[in-house]
Amino acid sequence: MSFYWVTPDVPANFGEVVYDDSYDPPRVVTAHFEFAYPVERELMKSNSGAYAVTRPLADALAQSGLNGYEFGPITTSISSLVEDPGSIVIPPLFGLVITGRAFADDFGIKGYGRLIASERAAAFLFERDEILRQYSSRLDENGDVVVEL
């Protein structure tokens, strides 16, 4: 089975993140997303390594049969550095808590916050957001990026 390193948009700056250190790697339990840019995609990451999804993606994931994740609480705000805060609309978001093991489950984390998705999970995400495919990399059985010529 192939796996992918999925690299979503990062519209949010560093915010407070609570980790559960009893897991290896530690799991994000809850996070604060401080938005510096508009929300344009269904899957996003903050600079602090937390992931969030929009309600439509959360609903679709819940029906997908994919494993290695659960939803958790997040809070949001707009960065004080944003010149026109009214230009940023934050939709309802859910924390995407990665509970799976990288290279074993549909979703897992490798290293510091690298989202690893199985081939079927990646196909599910790419079908919903073709741009996400452009910023993701297929990995070999050792977890190294496969360079396609």
What does this structure look like?
By secondary structure, the chain is of the alpha+beta class. 17% of the residues lie in helices and 38% in strands. It contains three helices and twelve strands; from the N terminus they run ββββββαβββββααβ. Strands 2, 3, 4, 5, 6, 7, 8 and 9 form an eight-stranded mixed β-sheet that branches. A four-stranded antiparallel β-sheet has the order 10-11-1-12. It is globular, with a radius of gyration of 15 Å. The model has no long low-confidence stretch (mean pLDDT 91).
Keywords:
4-stranded antiparallel sheet; 8-stranded mixed sheet; 149 residues; globular; alpha+beta
* Radius of gyration based on Cα positions: 15 Å
Give the proportion of residues in helices: 10-25%
Average pLDDT taken over every residue: 91
Alpha carbon gap, first and last residue: 21 Å
Q: SSE order in H/E notation?
A: EEEEEEHEEEEEHHE
Extract low-pLDDT stretches: none
The count of strands amounts to: 12
* Main pleated sheet: 8 strands, mixed
Number of helical stretches of at least 4 residues: 3
Oligomer: single chain
Strand fraction band? 35-45%
> Strand pairing plus helix content: what structural class?
alpha+beta
Gross geometry: globular
What is the compact description of this entry?
This protein is α+β, with helices and mostly antiparallel strands and 149 residues long. It has helices at residues 55-64, 119-128, 130-134, and strands at residues 3-6, 9-13, 17-20, 27-35, 43-46, 51-54, 69-72, 74-78, 93-98, 107-110, 114-118, 137-139.
SSE topology:
Blueprint: E1 3-6, E2 9-13, E3 17-20, E4 27-35, E5 43-46, E6 51-54, H1 55-64, E7 69-72, E8 74-78, E9 93-98, E10 107-110, E11 114-118, H2 119-128, H3 130-134, E12 137-139
Parallel strand pairs: 2-5, 4-8
Antiparallel strand pairs: 1-11, 1-12, 2-4, 3-4, 5-6, 6-9, 7-9, 10-11
